[in-house]
Amino acid sequence: MPTGPSPRSRRAAFGRLWNAACVLLSLTALFWAGNSIVGRAARDLVPPVALAFWRWSIALLILLPFAWPHLRRDLPALRRSWPIVVLLGLLGVGAFNTLLYSGLQHTTALNSMLVQAAQPPLILLTGVLLFGDRAWARQVAGVGLALAGVVTILLRGDWGSLFDLRLNVGDALILVAVVLWSIYSVLLRKRPAVHPLSFLAASFAVGVAAVLPVYAAEIAAGRRIVASAPSFAAIAYVSLFPSLLAYACFNRGVELIGSAATGAFLNVMPVFGAGLAMMFLGERLEGFHLAGVALIAVGVLLATRRTAARPGGGP
User: Taking the model in full, what pTM does it have?
Assistant: First the structure.
């Protein structure tokens, strides 16, 4: 008497999932949205630098057995390109997540998600500034609207406070993190031509090395992990879901529909994040959130519409 699906049917189901870009990218957006929720929820249990350090350390340990054969072969190429590998590891792994978790000590997960919604147009703007990428008038207008939306959220709808420089430190840290992620995303075009797992492992290693001295300083300042089941659950979540699984789904999505269309698709991340923040953290959706996200949404649509129409485009 059969007790469950056969191995063949399971492989077929996995094959269908592995080729379903919408499902894979929805999971990516959900896992990355959950990263901000967990970072906010665990703020009194796991200090921010500790969360970043153990996230990438555990993710690296899990990844290494799979990446090792490729890493051994690609090591000479990684050594030749060490400046860009180190820079990308510092920006995308070390700095971004440390700043994100630090910001979540002082602001809500909802604010964090909405500020991160400006990433697509900021990536466009960064490409123009660093590499002279061509930007259409529609894209420039989109960048402007999205940035206006971010400022609306940062100032909590009170534009008069812009002149008083009354910014929430958490929002400011997350905005810096988003800017650094935009630089990382644009510089990815300079990464060495190695296997994705090799590059991922090298990036994780650089990030861990960069965070280690900051983590030591955090411990010296008396901030330590509260030994409890919720603390370990938070570390386990961020190590597995927004790190390994989200990256695997994201990379496969790029293979299936291209990085430009993938980036546009991930604009659903703030929607997941807002729902999770209200569901699990009891955070409230305010009027300035709605105004800001409306500006960001229109800006993102304008900025990515032309790019998203070219699914084979690179980062």
Answer: 0.79
